[in-house]
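User: I need a structural model of LHH domain-containing protein from Pseudomonas spelaei for a docking pre-check later this week. Nothing fancy, just the predicted structure tokens so I can convert them on my end. Input:
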Amino acid sequence: SFHQKNSGTIHINSGSSIPSGINRAQFERWKKDYWKSRASSL
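Assistant: Understood. Predicted structure tokens for LHH domain-containing protein:
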């Protein structure tokens, strides 16, 4: 499949010492607030 053939390119940082580049805790807080806001606007 495409994913199997291109796994190394798609997941370039996987298994390496390179950090993800985002603050996961901060992103989780933003995501939670974002979806709460979206739900309240329905």
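Before docking, keep this in mind: The longest helix spans residues 24-40.
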